[in-house]
Specification:
There is one protein chain. This protein has 87 residues and is mostly helical. The longest helix has 23 residues. The chain is globular, with a radius of gyration of 13 Å. The termini are far apart. The mean pLDDT is 93.
Length: 87
């Protein structure tokens, strides 16, 4: 698999941030010698517009590890909202 696979990867409208980040991560690990900056740029383009994406544009991350760490809080908020809406 090549980095071109990342160009077609997009977060679906109904796809959770957790699911998208997991899918993105699975794709990234299959690409040999992937430049970390290419991966970081690709994930920014793949995310649908929302509060998490806005925060990344306001305060960019320096690495994929930092991006994953920041995503955790948004994933928790998203899951808590879904949980509350179910009841």
């Amino acid at each position: 698999m090549t980095s071109a696979a990342l160009a077609n990867l997009r977060q679906a409208d109904n796809e959770s941030l957790r699911k998208h980040m997991d899918r993105f991560g699975c794709t990234v690990v299959q690409i040999q010698n992937l430049n970390p900056e290419v991966a970081l740029h690709s994930v920014l383009l793949a995310l649908r517009p929302d509060k998490f994406t806005d925060s990344l544009y306001k305060k960019p991350t320096g690495s994929m590890d930092e991006l994953r760490e920041r995503a955790k809080g948004y994933v928790q908020n998203e899951e808590m909202s879904r949980f509350r809406n179910e009841f």
